[in-house]
Amino acid sequence: MSTSRVTPLRQRMIEDMEGRRLSAATQRYHINSCKRFAAFLGRSPETATPDDIRSFQHHLSEVGLSIITRNRVMTGVKFLVRVTMRRLDLANEIYHLREPQKIPQVLSPDEVKQLLAMAKTLKNRVLLSLAYGCGLRAGEVVRLRVGDIDSAQGIIRIVQAKGRKDRNVMLPPEVLVRLRQWWKERPTRHDVDVAMAERWLFPGYGKGRALSTRQFSRIFHETAEAAGIRKPVTLHSLRHSFATHLLERGTDIRRIQALLGHSKLDSTARYARVATGMIAKIESPLDALTGPGRKTRRKKTKPA
Hints:
15 helices, about 50% helix, 2 domains, hpI Integrase, Chain A, mainly alpha
């Protein structure tokens, strides 16, 4: 993160974040949140009071920000006041709202099949196949390197993903075939002086850069539109669909948890709420009352 032309307070905050090894994305979010707070105050956050913190949180609510965005902003501000400024009186005024628990939007197997069929290029088909077939996040797909593919063991190594965790996922045979086809077409102009294992599977436009998640997201939406999918889905819906379809096929939920890289089982268990195949197969107690298998009580007859 660039540290040129910054205030001493921001410089200290950057150093605090780097010392704690926060990701570049998290650092950007925190800095932007604190810029927003400073703009609201009209002065340096070093002069903030507890009343300023309360007013700022009320302001975020008044301008109509979502709960998720408000929580993200206040997380950045809390880092500033608690860690960098060491103002616990300010940090104690910060609260986070409970985020709404929404059911993930998933695609049906037929919709996924149609999506892959409508991919314009081999590259697009490989990207989408990895996201769905291996349950990968967008960033995990675009940051794959040649050395992450282990065809001998049939796995893909996901290195330092969300939460700075490594994990292995399966390498489906169909995905491996498409990867080998893509390797023959993959552009090589930026491979000079780069070790084979360190080369990006999906190079970006600049030297040393991988394809961006924004470009990948654009590919997904263009393909979904071509496939006639009208649901409000995002690229992450492919990961949701991967987990849901495995659950519907009877895969143990703890195996799905490991494949997704979830720390808590609760994060994986939510897919049980959207596994429509499982839900549709559940027999309602009403069926037991009105169905052909209904058991009737025998009337007792008096002895003659």
